[in-house]
Amino acid sequence: MQASSNSISNVLHTLQTNQLSVAGFVQGLLNSKEPHHHIERDSLLRNAGNICSLLYHQESAHKSVTKWVIPAVTKIICREVTELSHERHGLHFKASAATVEQLEGKFMEMMATKMRTISPTLWDFISALLDSHQDRRRAMINPDGMSSSLGSEVEMDLGEFGGHRAEDWEEMKPKKKQVRAAERNAVLMVIKAVVCISIFLQNSNERCNYLQGMLSFFYHSTSVPEKVIETLAHAGLSISISSIHSAVQSVSNQMSVRIRRAVRSLQSAFAYDNFDIDFKTEQPTLEHRSNFVSATSATVILLFGVNSTDQLHCSQWIWEQDPRNPALPLNPPHPLFIELKTMMRLHKDDTHNKQPNPTRPSPWQEAALWTDTNHPVFEVFDILLKR
After folding, report:
1. pLDDT computed for residue 243 by the predictor
2. String of DSSP letters for 39-58
């Protein structure tokens, strides 16, 4: 409620009579512990934001308010960075203990959620800096900073990193293309905010390097040169080369354990492939020649739909009857020719694949075609049979 001029004059007169200034009165009211002062004190606290805003827009007080606000906000942001860099928040990357689950998860969405939750002031500050240009169109579809699009299963085309300017939008009514552009820009802002905050965290605590560790797998998989990795490490966007090797070795050991466990479960198959590698020498000599290596790779493929080893007992029985099995006795109880006779008798008695009528398809062919016998496919089939 706005005070009238007369009311303000009466209050000022009362303050002068009691030899109090306005600033002294406010300070005394805030520091007062008297129970009957709490109503006025609570009113002052509830309107603290409006009072600070009014003081900030006063030309004579603008400089002093800014001088006080910047250190206060800096202290809050530094406190949030320190809190976020603690190990209990799960943003420490241990190269020697890297797991496969870390590569399979959505680490960018996870980091954005934690940063937004644990350090809201820092997140809002970085987001405001990234969106400081008023001419850029940074429409946010939802207030969560596009967390839904960031975690979407559909891979988005992030387009140019420059985003879209306001003049690129022809109409104010959003179209499908414009909505996708807004989602793309919002996702890019989230990614850049995570990168900026990750650099702050790693610079504050060198063990808080989760993003750097995850990016290092990408560098390794794409054969990024070591000089480039060292440059990225100095910029706070990668871990050291030795740490990358430790992380890759840790994940490789876990994958080896998984592969051995899958093979021993009898619920997987092998696919073999022959390949050649030509190790050429830049300047071949008699002592240093090019090497040509022929090798065979084995790929373990999980058998989906096999939920129990009981379903694969038939393979054990077949192997026990296989003449190539070295564990077979000299006179196997079930010779191979008995199985061949059984298979031949099975095909002889098969009526599903045989064609009883020369002008009609077999039952198997009818199941593979449409049920409508007047379909053109049947007419073509009849023509081929007559020919």
Report:
1. 93
2. HHHHHHHHTHHHHHHHHHTS
Please compute, for residue 19, the number of CA atoms within 13 A of its CA located in the half-sphere on the CB side. Answer: 0
Residue type for position 224: V
Strands (E), the chain: 268-279, 291-302
Q: How far, CA to CA in Å, does 114 sit from each of 74, 81, 117, 202, 336?
A: 20, 12, 5, 16, 64
Phi, psi for 152 (deg, rounded to 5)? -75, 150
Helix (H, G, I), strand (E, B) or coil at 165: strand
Residues 6+ apart with CB under 8 A from 358: 385
Q: How far apart are CA 354 and CA 348, in angstroms?
A: 9
Residues 239-282: tens digit of each pLDDT: 999 999 999 999 999 988 988 888 887 778 889 999 888 877 76
For residue 32, the one-letter residue type is S
- What is the tens place of the pLDDT at every residue in 64-120? 888 989 999 999 999 999 999 999 999 999 988 888 888 888 889 999 999 999 999
Query: Is the per-residue pLDDT at 365 higher than 50?
Result: yes
- Distance set, CA 208 to CA 49, 92, 94 (Å): 35, 4, 9
CA-based nearest residue to 143, from 127, 132, 159: 127
**More confidently predicted of 49 and 290:** 49
Within 10 Å of residue 12's Cβ, how many Cβ atoms?
Answer: 13
Task: Give DSSP secondary structure letters for 254-272.
Answer: HHHHHHHHHHHTT-EEEEE
How many angstroms separate the Cα of 118 from the Cα of each of 29, 74, 83, 90? 34, 16, 8, 12
pLDDT tens readout for residues 11-70? 888 888 888 888 888 888 888 888 888 888 888 888 888 888 888 888 888 888 889 899
Which pLDDT score is estimated for 151? 52
- In whole angstroms, what is the distance from residue 384 CA to residue 387 CA? 5
Q: What is the largest CA-CA distance in the chain?
A: 123
Q: 8: helix, coil or strand? A: helix
Residue 22 to residue 9: CA distance in whole angstroms? 12
Strand spans (E) along 217-371: 268-279, 291-302
User: Full-prediction pTM beyond 0.90?
Assistant: no
